[in-house]
Every structure is written in C-alpha cells, then in structure tokens.
C-alpha cells in the first residue's frame, strides 16, 4: 500500500508540474493574471 | 502577572490556529487595498493560493484557484486550462485537505463563528448525506455552468463565483462596498447580490450551530482536495500497528469522516489528541511533523516571508497624471471635464476625445473574458443605430487574452472598438478601475454626466443620452 501510494504521489507531482509548464507556455498563466487584475463585477455578485 | 500567564496558557492559539491566521494574512497582504478601496493588480496575481480567497478582496495578492478554474473552463474553447489544473493537482497531492484545516481563511472564519455561544448540532446521518451536495455544486456550478456558457454561448460565466461563493461576497463585494470610494457600486447592486447576500447570511448563521457548515456541505474546493486526501504528502496518518480500532478518533471528529484521512477529513489533527494509543500524527511522507527544532526554523522563515510580503505589497505606487485639454477643471468625476486621450481603433484610424466636442460620447470599458461586458455591448450597438449622432467607443482592457479583432469580426458589432495601450492611457483618463464593465457618458461640452461600474441596459443608456443632451 505504502509503495503504491508513493508511486501515485510521484506520478501526480510530475503530472502537475508538466501541466503547470504547459499552462505557462500556452498562455494560461497570463489568463489567470488578467482575470484576477480585471474583475467583472457580476462575477463577484455585484449585479 | 501570574493571572496573565495563566490566562495566556489557557487561551493561547494552537499551532493550527496560528497557521490559519498566517495564511489569511499572507493571502491578503495588500493591506493598503482596504484603506484605499482598491484591489491589488500586480503580477503576483498570476499565482494561485491553495485556499478559498477571492481575488476581488482588496487585500488579495494572488488568485483564487476556484475562480481561476471556472474562468479557465469558460475559456476552454480557445485555450486549455492546464496551468490551473496543474496548480490544483499540485496543491492536492502535496496538501490534500490540509489546505482546508490549516490554510483556508474562510475555514478560519467558520471555526470562529462556531465558537459563538449557543446550541451546536451534532453530526449524524443527515450531515453525512448533506456532505455529498458539495460534489453536485462542483459538477454544476464550477464545471458545467462555465463550460456550457463559455463553449456554447461565448459568455464567460464563473457559476460558483457569481451565484454562490460566500467568501467572494464577504471578502470581495462587501469589502469593496464598505469603502466610500466605491459608493457608486451600490447603484449596480441587484438580484444577483441580493441572492448572494442572503446565502452569505444563511451560511454564517449555520456555522454558529454547525461546525464548518460551508466546508462540509457546499465547498467545491474541499471536494476537489478531498479526492487527493489518501495520497497527499502531508496529512494526518494512522499507525495501523498501534491502532486498536476503538473508533474514538471518528467519534470525536467534528467532520463527517468514516475513517481518519478519508475525503471528508480536513487534516486538522484534533483526533490525535483523543487517541489513547498515540497512533495518529500529522506527517509529511513518512516523517512525523513534531520536531520542535525544525518547527522553530520553519516558523522563523515563515515570519520573514510574511514581513517581506507586508512591506512589498504595501509600498506606495506612482500614478501618472491625466493629460488635460484646457484649463477647465479636469477629472473623471461627474461634472468634471474628462481629460483628452487618443486610442488607435481596431480596423484602422484613431479616436481622440477632443475631436468629438459637440457630441454625446459613450465610453464603455470591457474585456472579452468579462461575461456581463459581452452581454451588454449589443445595447451600445443598438443605441448607436437609434442615435447615429452619438459617438460610442468600447475600449478593451490592455490585458488581452483573445484576438480581440477576430472576436469582434465574428459578432459584426458596428461601433468603434479599441484596445487600450500598455500604458492604460484611456482607462486612466476616464478613471477606469479593475472592475468591469464600466460606462462613462460625456456631454457635448466634454463634461462627465455618468461614470459608474456595473452593467447597463438599453433603457438606461437612452435615459443617459437624454440627460447628457440637457
């Protein structure tokens, strides 16, 4: 069980890192930044 | 002196409580935002924090992972949200629901509310059944609503943020509304805010009687992290060799767990205190997290990091003064003369405000990723069709995520569109903020008659046209 959990953890960490890098390369990081800087009022319930 | 030290010994915050307070302060280190009534717009907002912390909070220095996920799903038609999925997976596999128990400001608020005197509802089959509702909230409001509206209607709509999130209502909407500078936001309040405010009050009232009512029954972020609980690197673990199966841990736990560290466990470690066999501990991998020396070193690093954040995020900024056309009082408040500005138009040509003296000018600040912005633009187009003598200019934020020209070509809207320059000259000239949409109406004398954040309808635009022409 412990060995299996360690393998799952390692795979998930590598996968997460790859997704983050892919997201930075495809502009996803910039999307998060812009949508956090310019907030649509209805999106926070001001409407 | 002895009384003070006795009081302190009886009331000193636990390590977990200190961690919660620390996280709340670190996520919201932009303290001057509360004083100035403005949100932080620095580049650190590209980073997601692990807990539920609305990025519209004036103090927030980073992005909310749940808001970012919904926006990524809404935009998945033209860009996959790998970055957000990667961040959620990373937080999940490293921390699991340790985020909920140790690093979530809204979790802290709920626990403090539960300390209010009054009857407390014990968990049971009813609460265990209700704990599944958060998965439905995740599936419908976090996933389905943004995907449906984004892919099929071209309308960015973060369903959970807009309709449910009490953290956003409290930390974002209420915090902004409380500042006198944002008084004009009150005119934008409608049914959406009313529903969310009622939900916030119900959630907070429920938390006084039910431990962490929102976490247990509604929080989709907890639902996501719970999926990682059994494999997370950091978490509460049971030493099966010592455990005698007495079940005291599960009975004592205020959450709806069936066993320690299942998907309902927020890894708070309270069960460790009731285990007679000392079989439960908070661990990182195989190592117990109770080394005092390492703990003190970690705490010292954390304090330095927090101090650095509080300094860095509260340094005074420099604002460029708007360019004035004449000696008349200039500004963007109602009654003032709007400063002149020029923007290049999409499709060629340029717009200079002073060249439209003698006309009523409607200026709309928008973005393709702002659902209500996109929804109201047809009203401006219709206004222009009805009143060709009016000038309408829609200025997209300089923060562009799509090809705005291609976006507009698909829609055939016949008004002037521009994208603000990197210096945000147009946004600054009209007093644009980070809140969208925003509409500014200028009369033929160049004076501002309306300048407010929030959606407008065609009827409202017609009324403003009438006011501007008086």
Explain this structure to me?
- The complex is a heterodimer of chains A (47) and B (470).
- Chain A is mainly alpha-helical and 47 residues long.
- Chain A is built from two helices and one strand; from the N terminus they run H-H-E.
- Chain A has helices spanning 2-25, 28-37; one strand at 39-40.
- The longest helix of chain A has 24 residues, at 2-25.
- The model of chain A has no long low-confidence stretch (mean pLDDT 89).
- The N and C termini of chain B lie far apart (72 Å).
- Helix content of chain B is 44%, strand content 10%.
- Chain B has helices at residues 2-11, 15-27, 32-36, 65-74, 82-95, 98-102, 105-114, 125-130, 133-152, 159-163, 166-177, 191-209, 213-217, 220-226, 248-252, 292-312, 371-386, 404-411, 425-429, 458-468; strands at 234-238, 280-284, 287-288, 342-344, 350-352, 361-366, 391-396, 416-419, 435-436, 438-442, 448-453.
- Chain B has a five-stranded mixed β-sheet with strand order 8-7-6-10-11, covered by helices on one side.
- At the A-B interface, helix 1, helix 2 and strand 1 of A face helix 4, helix 5, helix 10, helix 11 and helix 12 of B.
Head-to-tail CA distance between termini of chain A: 51 Å
Query: How are helices and strands ordered from N to C of chain A?
Result: HHE
Tell me the distance between the termini of chain B: 72 Å
Q: Which ranges of chain A are low-confidence, i.e. pLDDT below 50, for 5 or more consecutive residues?
A: none
Low-confidence stretches of chain B: 319-328
Mean pLDDT of chain B: 91
Structural class of chain A: mainly alpha
Mean pLDDT of chain A: 89
Structural class of chain B: alpha+beta
The total of helices of chain B stands at 20
Strand order of the largest sheet of chain B: 8-7-6-10-11
* Biggest interchain interface, per-side counts: A-B, 37 and 75 residues
Oligomeric state as shown: heterodimer
What is the number of E strands of chain B? 11
Q: Helicity of chain B, in percent?
A: 40-55%
